[in-house]
Amino acid sequence: MAREKLEEPHPVDIHVGRRVQEKRLGLGLTQSALARALGVSFQQVQKYEKGTNRVSASKLFEMADFMKVEIPYFFSGFRAAQAGVGEEEAPAFDHEPRMTKHSVEIARLAPHLPLRNQKLILDMIREMLGDAAEKPS
Question: Which segments constitute the HTH cro/C1-type domain (predicted)?
Answer without folding.
Answer: 20-74
